[in-house]
Design a protein that fits this description.
Layout: E1 6-7, H1 12-19, H2 27-35, H3 40-53, E2 61-62, E3 86-95, E4 101-102, E5 107-111, E6 148-152, E7 158-164, E8 175-187, E9 190-203, H4 206-212, E10 245-248, E11 258-266
Helix pairs in contact: 2-3
């Protein structure tokens, strides 16, 4: 299987934005690296100004994969006590059909596996290789909601998440899933209504990922890790294909964590739910589910056992 599970549909408006004017592929990734880890206020303002002057090629959409669940909470910190190397994500949503201007109010939803390759809602699915059972991690995380969440973009189109570096599962490389929603609103601790404008994935440099996987608790999951070149979804296009810009919190100690940045260019008029193909996020392990949520998983309302925060 190759990484061609893509939504290639392009409207006339999008075609003009991608091929004409001052489009500079990858330009926002460079600007973001310089600004994303400064003071929050300065970073947001700089990212917004950069978005207007330099526009990254639109990221293509991919299907949502087999581990999506409705009803994720609106919150900044999605860890719920899960152990792992800290990861701060700063993401900027821009309108790629209108000079890459910020999209305030856009809801960015992310979800990813824990350090051993398990997703909330699907904690019995074998991640491949040899890993302890998810229940052995010792955390107090809610098995239906951990490492899932929404954030609403501020006036500069920026959202920020606090999470952990994801682990891996066979046969996928290390990744984070993402959906960008517009037109809905926060309700009962989650996000309701509107439409999905982009469904995609974020990826990590192999060198960084492989170093982190030698650390606890990641090292307790052994097996063959899939590199970017061999992944069935990542197409090798760098930031335009979801590759995060990463900066170590402490260069000599990766356990202290990383900060990651990416700008998401969307078409607010388009809809890309990513649904309808269970294998689109990569073929799941042999005993993994095929996209049907467990009977007790959230279905549009916040879990009563996990707190929401802005």
């Amino acid at each position: 299987m190759t990484g061609n599970h893509r939504d290639k549909t392009i409207t006339r408006r999008r075609a003009i934005a991608v091929t004409g004017g001052t489009v500079a592929a990858g330009g926002l990734a460079v600007a973001g690296y310089q600004s994303a880890f400064a003071d929050d206020t300065t970073a947001d303002a700089t990212a917004s100004a950069s978005a207007v002057s330099e526009c990254m090629t639109l990221m293509t959409s991919v299907t949502e994969g087999p581990y999506y669940l409705d009803g994720a909470l609106v919150r900044k910190d999605i860890t719920e006590g899960k152990s792992g190397v800290p990861l701060t994500l700063r993401l900027t949503v821009v309108d790629a059909t209108d000079g890459c201007t910020p999209v305030p109010g856009a809801a960015v939803e992310i979800w990813h596996c824990d350090a051993w390759g398990y997703y909330s809602g699907y904690t019995t699915a074998n991640p491949g290789g040899s890993a302890p059972a998810e229940s052995e991690d010792g955390s107090t995380a809610d098995d239906r909601t951990y490492l899932r969440g929404y954030q609403i973009a501020n006036g500069n189109g920026v959202v920020k998440f606090e999470t952990i570096f994801p682990g891996w599962y066979t046969p996928r490389t290390c990744h984070i899933h993402v959906k960008v929603h517009t037109g809905g609103e926060k309700e009962d601790g989650t996000y309701e209504g509107g439409k999905v404008n982009h469904t995609g994935q974020f990826f990590f440099d192999d060198t960084v990922a492989e170093e982190i996987f030698t650390l606890e608790p990641y090292s307790r999951h052994s097996g063959s890790y899939t590199t970017l070149d061999n992944d069935m979804v990542y197409d090798g296009g760098g930031a335009a294909d979801g590759l995060l810009t990463l900066k170590a919190v402490h260069k000599k100690d990766p356990s202290k964590g990383y900060k990651g940045f990416l700008t998401l260019g969307i078409d607010p008029d388009a809809e890309s739910t990513g649904a309808g193909s269970g294998g689109g996020g990569g073929t799941p392990p042999s005993d993994a589910p095929t996209g049907t949520p467990p009977s007790d998983a959230p279905t549009g309302s916040a879990s009563p056992t996990a707190s929401a925060s802005s």
